[in-house]
Amino acid sequence: MGSLGVDGAAEAVVDDDGETVYLAASDGFATVDIADPSSPTLLAEVTGIGEEFTNGPLRSILDVAVAGDELLVSGPAQRGTFRGLVVYDVSDPTAPEPATEFVRTGHSIHNADFDGEYAYLTNNLPSDRPLSIYDVTATNEDGERAPEQVGRWSPLQYDADVEGWSEMGLFPGTIHDVTVHDGVAYCCYWDGGTWMVDVSDPANPSYLGRVGDYPLERLVELATDLAEGDSAEFRQLFGEAPGNDHYAAVDEDASVLAVGGEAWDDPTTPGGGPADLDLYDVSDPANPEQVATIEPEAATDTTRGGTWTTAHNFDIHGDRLYTSWYDAGVKVHDISDPANPERLAWWLQPEEARFWTAQVATPGETFVASSYGIDGRRSALYVFPDREGEQADRPSLLGEQGTTTVRTTTTRSTTETTTAETTTPTTTESGSESEAEETPGFGVLAALGGLGYGAYRYLRGREE
């Protein structure tokens, strides 16, 4: 319907009215008016956040979260010595103003969520990789709002909740993202799975349940091998599917959980390939059940240096699932029957757009998607009609000799591993280490898959 170029565009979120979009934009954030979907208009750009501090301003802002008239901004998503969070008043989206002090943290913040009272931050400190919870209504001695940490939760710290989990070690259980809905935090711990945590009392979070491709025993075995200096299998598992839990969302009554991975193919190892998106019945969080898988599209080259078709960020509203798949575009599925998701729409333009997220704007009318501007793609916000239909003359992701990735998925308990059968791509050129550091996911931690045990030891000795 319409699009607008925005430098540094990453995560996009939409206000309650469906007319204003807030975009994380690397060096800050932008607000965009989509009241006229055919002509999105830039309202404001905010940069220089925290520039009054030594080592400021804040960089690598890849995520924002909105609640009512306030916007949480935090980072950096990747490396950096200046780290923290601030809440902005966006009641006038043309003139955002800080609503709280900028509070520095001792850790990077790859992703976060916000409910208007508490900020939920991913925290990848080497000690325990926790979810950190901040009360953003707290005040300092001058009566000004100054967010303060009130709670934290980690699978390692809370071994009493899940006996034996502390034996897994730090990897591959790095926390990548968190989504909070009705007092439950859905924490994506990469190969460690997605954990459901009761945060209704933020000072005392507690374990509810977990889904994941690997059982605890397998992860403990992997951590033991890594500690003994054998990084080959770790390198494969960390960078490739299955596992790689990257983003999660639930429907309104929290009965359906969607978990998307993020992965590329490593042609030097068997299996792997782009990650899919799994649907779970979590009506009983203690006994979740996988009910369906939405597979990624096949492409001639699915390495980091090729065509990106892995799942990325998404949204659920009502019976519709809005997904992004980087170069493979954006899709809308009907999940009224979660065991049988039905694709309603699909749009892609792989030479132009590399989609980061898809989010509903006005249900039944519009949804939005942001394009991540690397490798020659556009950095932009797109607005799409929220209706059933197929793109005319849709581009192909396969060359003349391209092959198809096939995965066999069955309904399983959360401790079993999906079986996979994968054909070899025609092109086997992988991305460089510098490319790995530029990719989303964990940035330097994603690059770790290619750097091996030495980098692992280095990372354990310092903050991310």
Short description:
Helix content is 9%, strand content 34%. It is mainly beta and 464 residues long.
Structure description:
Mean pLDDT is 84; it is low at 400-439 and 442-464. With 464 residues, the chain is mostly beta strands. It has five helices and 32 strands. The strands form eight sheets. Strands 6, 7, 8, 9 and 10 form a five-stranded antiparallel beta sheet that branches. It has a five-stranded mixed beta sheet with strand order 23-24-25-26-30, with no helix packed on it. The two termini are 40 Å apart. Helix content is 9%, strand content 34%. It has two domains: 1-153, Methylamine Dehydrogenase, Chain H (7 Propeller); 155-172 and 179-311 and 398-464, no CATH class. Helix 2 (232-239) runs antiparallel to helix 4.
SS-derived structural category: mainly beta
The low-pLDDT segments are 400-439, 442-464
Helical segment count? 5
The first-to-last residue Cα distance is 40 Å
Helical coverage, percent range = under 10%
How many domains in all? Answer: 2
- Taking all Cα atoms into account, the compactness measure Rg is 21 Å
Strand residue percentage = 25-35%
> Overall 3D geometry?
globular
Main sheet summary: 5 strands, antiparallel
Mean pLDDT: 84
Strand tally is: 32
Write the layout of secondary structure elements.
Blueprint: E1 2-5, E2 12-14, E3 20-24, E4 28-33, E5 41-47, E6 64-67, E7 70-75, E8 84-89, E9 97-98, E10 103-104, E11 112-114, E12 118-122, E13 131-135, E14 148-153, E15 177-181, E16 184-188, E17 194-198, E18 206-211, H1 216-227, H2 232-239, E19 245-250, E20 256-261, E21 277-281, E22 289-294, E23 314-317, E24 320-324, E25 330-334, E26 342-347, E27 355-362, E28 366-371, E29 380-385, E30 389-390, E31 405-407, E32 420-422, H3 433-438, H4 444-451, H5 453-460
